[in-house]
UniProtKB/TrEMBL annotation:
Known partners and oligomeric status: The Tol-Pal system is composed of five core proteins: the inner membrane proteins TolA, TolQ and TolR, the periplasmic protein TolB and the outer membrane protein Pal. They form a network linking the inner and outer membranes and the peptidoglycan layer.
Polar residues composition-biased segments: 57-68
Phylogenetic lineage: Bacteria, Pseudomonadati, Pseudomonadota, Betaproteobacteria, Burkholderiales
HAMAP family, A to Z: Pal
Protein name per its UniProtKB record: Peptidoglycan-associated lipoprotein
A biological process term (GO) from this entry: cell division
Chain intervals for the UniProt region annotation (Disordered): 30-69
Organism of this sequence: Diaphorobacter ruginosibacter
Keywords: Cell cycle, Cell division, Cell outer membrane, Lipoprotein, Membrane, Palmitate, Signal
Gene name of the encoded protein: pal
Signal peptide limits: 1-28
Amino acid sequence: MIRFDFKRAALALTVTALVAGCSSGVKLDDVPVDDKGATSTTGQGSNSGSGTGQSTVTPADMSQNSRPGQGPVGVAHVVYFDFDSYTVKPEYQSVLEGHARFLKANNGKKVNLEGNTDQRGGSEYNLALGQKRSEAVRRSLALLGVPDSQMEAVSFGKEKPAATGNSEDAYAQNRRVEFSYR
């Protein structure tokens, strides 16, 4: 005779409901990052004349980076995104390469990749979108050879705006990932 254990069934249903309730519909692992020949950007001798398809990025000056909390000099510390997007635009490849070179040359340095959004949308959605943006930049840096131990992806959502106002210009300034060195 099979006995139905009502307490066990109730406990299993409760645990299942808790796990399902904690999950989010936002897929943070689906960040689109294209590997566009990261191996060709090692570029230590990019002006040697022997390379084809080498990066045209101006080398960052690593000698002026001794101050704590400061990253590479002469390299932008912000990557901007389109509305409702977490795709890193190709125009920021040189920024990523500059930070990757700096981090690989200074393996004691760590960087927070702070994802931000504009003020439109709910708080939960903006936190998730900011996280997706910071993860996209982290993955791009990882493709360029930066160890995960030197990077942390965080999200501020819409809580840390760079610009106030309801104009498209203000929104565009807030859709970003900032590099914050420590």
